[in-house]
Every structure is written in C-alpha cells, then in structure tokens.
Design brief:
73 residues; single chain; alpha+beta; three-stranded antiparallel sheet
Amino acid sequence: MYGLSKIEHPLDERLVNKEQAAVLMGRSITAVMKYLNTGRLTRYDLNGHCLFFDRREVEILAAEIHSGNVTRR
C-alpha cells in the first residue's frame, strides 16, 4: 500500500498540528489555514476540537514552497 492513505488512528505519529505544520512549511499559522481552506491540505479532526494534518502532505507542500513552485496567498 503505497502513496497517501487515510490515517485511521487520531494520535498517529504522522499527524502534526497547525503550529508544527507552520514550522515545517516556514509559514504562519494563518498561511497554513489558507492552504487548508484552498484544498492544499487535508484536515483530520479529533472530536471536532483538535486539528491535525498528515506530516507527509505538509512536507510535500513545504518542498513545493521552498522550491518556489507555490506562491504566498
């Protein structure tokens, strides 16, 4: 099973919160939320209160950002 798959366990080590995602991407939390709202990131909720992102998805987006393929919005 290769590629991105849904994360079943809500406390999976592959999940990062919005603050961690911002650090990985070198962007603000506001920018992370914009990427979420534009469909660039997938959200994973824990009881509707805690917001997480798949670390692999964040790292892929971070690589695009750092290569200059993604502009700030």
